[in-house]
Amino acid sequence: MPLAAVGENQLSYERSGAGEPLLLIMGMSGTAQHWGEPFLEPLRASFEVITYDHRGVGDSTPLHGSITTAEMAADAAGLLDALEIDSAHVLGISMGGMVAQELALAHPERVRTLALGCTYCGGQGSAVAAPEVVQTLSEAMLSGDRLRALRAGWEANVSPAAAADEEAFARFMSIGERHAVALAVVMAQMQAVAAHDTSTRLPDLAMPTLVVHGTEDRMLPVANAHMIASLVPGSQLEILDGVGHLFFWEMPQRSAELVRAHASVLA
């Protein structure tokens, strides 16, 4: 992946497809490869798809110390500057959805349409993962057993039905093994998520906004989607029944179609 100069940092990125620009912002511990070809390929027919790695991930500048979702949003805006893109459709998932919120709030003129997947906004009424989910993931990550950590991450991020799909897990594991994110970076991202709160500012958003969430999401319960949709004026809420956190892995074609249809509101 090529590198783009963003301030004093460099971010690895990839551009593919043709059409209006679509910036994809990945979540905690994820890489650009975690979007998966089954989701990206149908998007390339309609958009110039831009994926990238956050600081500390892949070939992007190493992360030293802490970071906030607002700082990651500044990175995203800087990447658009480096690529000479005035504005783009934006999709952020999980932590990336929090970054997308900050990007849209700080630079509304850069965001044509906003799609927020499996994310949350913080504040009173928001919901986080159950303690037992956090404990299972923490124990797996700290065990030093890479396979155990990947398996735990997979099972926590998809529905029970999808967790039993060994072929899908093999693809997920292959990406995790080839593009591992350091534990220190994951912890810094986790702290950024914990500090994130846009709940009182979301009513300021005026661009067309889509909120997507699965009913079986164990990482960030579906109640967050209802809260965000209630705060963003005129937003569209899409609830995917029986789907976990990684909705775009479980329903890639449906997810891509939702993004395409949402972006078309400006056509």
Please tell me about this protein's structure.
The chain contains eleven helices and eight strands. The chain is of the alpha/beta class. Strands 1-2-4-3-5-6-7-8 form an eight-stranded mixed beta sheet, sandwiched between helices. The chain is globular and about 45 Å long.
Main features:
single chain; 267 residues; alpha/beta; Rossmann fold; eight-stranded mixed β-sheet; 11 helices; 8 strands; 42% helix; globular
SSE arrangement:
Layout: E1 3-6, E2 9-17, E3 20-25, H1 37-44, E4 47-52, H2 69-82, E5 88-93, H3 95-106, E6 111-117, H4 131-142, H5 146-157, H6 160-163, H7 166-178, H8 183-195, E7 209-214, H9 223-231, E8 236-240, H10 247-250, H11 252-263
Parallel strand pairs: 3-4, 3-5, 5-6, 6-7, 7-8
Antiparallel strand pairs: 1-2, 2-4
